[in-house]
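Task card 7
Instruction: Convert sequence to structure tokens.
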Amino acid sequence: MCGIVGYFDRDNSRRSADMQSIVGAMADRLAHRGPDDRGTSAEEDSGIALGHRRLSILDLSMAGHQPMISGAGRFVIAFNGEIYNYLAIQSELQHESGGELRLRGGSDTEVILAAFDRWGVEASVVRMEGMFAIAAWDRHERALWLVRDRLGKKPLYYGHFGATVMFASELKAFRAHPDFHPEIACNAVSAYFRFGNVPAPLSIYRGVKKLPAASWLRISQDGAEREPHEYWSLTKLVRSGRASPFEGSDHEAIDDLDARLRNSTRQRMIASDVPVGLFLSGGVDSSTVTALAQAQSSIPIRTFSIGMSSAEYDESKFAGLVAKHLGTEHTSRLLTPAQAMNAVVELPAIFDEPFADSSAIPTLLVSRLARNHVTVALSGDGGDEMFGGYNRHIMAASLWPIVRKLPMAVRSQAARVLAGLNPARWDDAMRTFGAIVPRRFHLANLPEKVHKIGRALEADNSSNLYLGLISYWQNPSDILNPEHQIDWTPPNARDWFDEEDPATSMMLADAQFYMHNDIMVKVDRASMAAGLEVRNPFLDSSVVEFARTLPLRFKIRNGVGKWIVRRVMDRYIPPELTMRPKMGFAIPLTSWLRGPLRDWAEDLIGDGSPHGEWLNRWAVQTVWHNFLSGDGGLTDKVWSLLMFQAWMKCEESCATISLHQSEFSANTPIFQ
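Output:
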């Protein structure tokens, strides 16, 4: 895993030494992504400069040094990621060349270049299974190729500033280029407050975009530039799966998924020359991956978890039970408010953009914990999106078909009732009646979920229902000053939805939007800030393609999600160790913000805090005071305000922040 940077001066206005200096400074901003090696290249006559920071995973020798030139001398590459099927691609190349293929080392990067030489970029990318962001300079055609993996696991930003096109794995690298002039984009701020992140293709800065997942972009020296081209489509995959669904039995489906997950887990364990471990929360997905990994290992594998000081948010005891049953070498640490506070202040510099998913805190800390022992970790990310694991998927399958038939007046009244309920009373009710309430209604963080459901009841179609359920602010104009009230919604949202199958549509939307812009961003930035590579067996293309052929009954059955994943897991782990309400990687944010984190929050959004040009002071104060008065349904909104203000405060100082790998060495105490 690595960090890539570079730029393309179409007017060739800089000398080689200056180009090397600039691209080297850009690369150094990403030292945390690649602490093991640094490389730059510059071609004055073409105006192209590439930079690379390397976290050595495959072929630890200097034969894996980047930027790397292809054997034919045509392509120069800066590559971030892992190609899990690179040996199969190498074998195909060897066959086509009549055994004449000669490689200098054993890295997947060299195989990518050999493929580019033989087949070209477009034909090569569709063969690649893995996670990747690629910048490749074609010396023959004098064109820059930017490419991103199918599901957006690895990031890639690009921007135009005058005659210069620059690109990087993270925005902080842009600040080292003299042509970069940051200006905050209004539509990105509005999108952030709606969704808690800045969704692709937007970035927080004008003139800079995120390359969409499963896309390539070709930029030529003559100024001709295509829009990003989609080389693979999850939407088309879902539609073809509906047209030709899996027709086998329950047992056949379970066998098939077991085999595919076993293979994808094994691939991600063996494609490494460094130690590999696993994140283990104790939930269904991470437990399944851990079980499959341990079943294929001759020694105990390393597993890691973070626990919470608040019992209702703590899954670490379940992780410990699963680890004991499977026989892993398990390490767990308890997260306290003080440790969370230390992590919170780092988030703006780590993410470069406002980012309101509070589970970034435990993700960062479990990554640092794991990095003390391993360089690669496997996770269960993707299981929810592929197999119906979120409560909203279950709601779409069971409740929405009923709700959408009710008159809007009835729904509006129900929404008002739910919005007015006291969250504390829900907690009291569940403690009193929990024993007789059906298990599927035992939801973690129930008050916040009830309020969100209430707000979504008035949706007029599945698309708006989904957007309502994932929104922090239904109307960002409620919090922004008038001059910044620019509405933004995903331009292709309606393409995801089929009213005849709202649950499957919602899973597709989550994979295309929520996972892409939240989960993948969170895991990449948090893990790479610790110098750790994270791999996702559930997001192997074989698993994804199989999931999209499965009828809904294999995913949601009797009001419970991930039915088929649970059946695979049952082969390795007793069900009683994992049967409980879904919690997610949550922290006790409401109580912390009213208690140990309150002073920090007051400094950012309290009565005396500055709110700047973006936020409506009166609206901020109203939300804050209502939250302190007991409205737990406002927690997400408050956190989004805090993360925006923290990022704004950091925005100037971020120009000088650099995350150094020495902060994450094995000798550094992670928990005091």
